[in-house]
Amino acid sequence: SESGFSEYQLTVTPAAMSGPATIDVGNAGTVMRFLPPLAALATGEISFDGDPRSYERPLAPVIKALEELGVSIAHEGRYSLPFTLHAKGGIPGGVITIDASASSQFLSALLLVGASFENGITVIHKGGTLPSMPHIDMSVEMLRDFGGVVSVDSEAKSWSVKPGALHGRDLIIEPDLSNAAPFLSIAMLCGGSITIADWPAKTTQPGDQLRSILSDMGAKISMSEKGLTLTGTGVIHGIDIDLHDVGELTPAIAALAIFADSPSHLRGIAHLRLHETDRLSALTREINALGGDVKEHESSLHITPAPLHGGVFHTYEDHRLATAGAVIGLMVPGIEVENIATTRKTLPDFPGLWSSLLT
Predict the structure, then answer these.
(1) What is 199-241 written as a DSSP string?
(2) 83, containing H or E segment
(3) Residue 152 contacts by C-beta under 8 Å, 6 or more apart in sequence?
(4) In this predicted model, what pLDDT tens digit does every residue of 231-241 receive, in sequence order?
(5) 201: Cβ–Cβ under 8 A, 6 or more apart, which residues?
(6) Rounded Cα distance, 234 and 213, in Å
(7) Do the strands 150-153 and 311-313 form a parallel or antiparallel pair, or are they unpaired?
(8) Mean pLDDT, the chain, whole residue set
(9) Active-site pick, 248, 276, 286, 317
(10) What is the sign of the dihedral through the CA atoms of 340, 262, 265 and 241?
(11) Strands 121-125 and 94-98, sheet pairing
(12) How many CB atoms are closer than 10 A to CB 1?
């Protein structure tokens, strides 16, 4: 392709699922939350395990919901990993109430398999503010694209999926726009232009908000048939922004904010404490260790630009911390990003891609 990457094609053929099977989720929130409801449609024992950090990440709403729907799960009262699911090949479905305030994935996980339940499913959210609403919108749109009948009552915070077969179709997977953040940062910090190929003209991906966020921070952005092009203007402005719906962009924006011409306030991100690591504490600790001025609050970060010095930037097995460290290293000599290999979670060859743009 023009971007230099070969196309990867994957064909999925529906078939009956059965255990015994063991699934190692690593520390991937999507895997640990999306696969158990799917596994509940299989027959036999399906065991889930993961890294030590995965044991600490919230999973109870999914486990409790499946238990209320009649699925037997052995978790020794932890309502977290590791656990074993005793699947019987079907789920009656019905109405379920959950608290998805810690992660929108709790809701999406149930909706995506709801059409396969005998009576479909209605999921009602009862709790704090839902984070990452665009991700739920993506799940609804995807279900509808495959023939699912989904109704949404935003006022009642209720989502319903009717039972019925979904239809197979050919699908072009959009690039993960959130992964573009560190690469766009290169042009903002170092000057010049960078083009991200195949950026969709219309998308429900939260990462598309990079266009407005980085524009507000001083970048010049344009769209063409080639994709999205960002041109650095030689200035980076501080920003006061609620990142509740796009929390995964926080590490990259924080890295840029260090070099801005005014302070930044990144708000609405308390849920990031429950990601691969406590991202608020980790960003504060690592940036301040390099001489930065970051003040951590319960649900926000206040960043005041300050001169930085070299040092080790620890990543805590978190791919977005690693890419944030790489961004800081563009401007600060002597930055060593610990365990850059953790970026393999979402960017299999991040070091190679990064190096190719800096030579």
Answers:
(1) --SS---GGGGHHHHHHHTT-EEEEETTEEEEE--S-----EE
(2) strand 83-88
(3) 140, 158, 159, 160
(4) 999 899 999 99
(5) 223
(6) 16
(7) unpaired
(8) 93
(9) 248
(10) negative
(11) parallel
(12) 8
Judged against a pLDDT cut of 80, whether residue 8 lies above it is answered with no
C-alpha dist (Å) from residue 79 to 83, 104, 323: 8, 18, 32
Residues 33-64 as b or e (16 or more Cβ within 10 Å = b): bbbbbebbbbeebbbbbbbebbeebbbebbbb
The owner of tokens 């209605």 is: 122
According to DSSP, the residues that pair with 241 across neighbouring strands are 266
Residue 250's Cα: distance from chain center in Å? 11
Give me the numbers of helices (H) and strands (E) for the chain, helices first please: 11, 17
pLDDT at 130: 85
Who contacts 62 (Cβ-Cβ below 8 Å, separation ≥6)?
33, 36, 37, 106, 109, 110
Tell me 352's DSSP state.
H
Question: Beta partners for 337?
Answer: 313
Task: Give residue 252's identity as a one-letter amino acid code.
Answer: A
Q: Could you tell me if residue 136 is left (phi over 0), alpha (psi between -120 and 50 degrees) or otherwise beta?
A: alpha
Given a contact cutoff of 8 angstroms between Cβ atoms, the answer to whether 244 and 268 are in contact is yes
- Residue 69 has a pLDDT of 93
Written as one letter, the residue type at 135 is: H
Strand-pairing partners, residue 264, are 303
- 336 is known as an active-site residue: no
Distance CA 313, CA 248 (A): 19
Q: Which domains does the chain have, with CATH numbers?
A: 21-161 (3.65.10.10), 177-358 (3.65.10.10)
Residues 6 or more apart in contact with residue 135 via CB below 8 angstroms: 104, 105, 108, 206
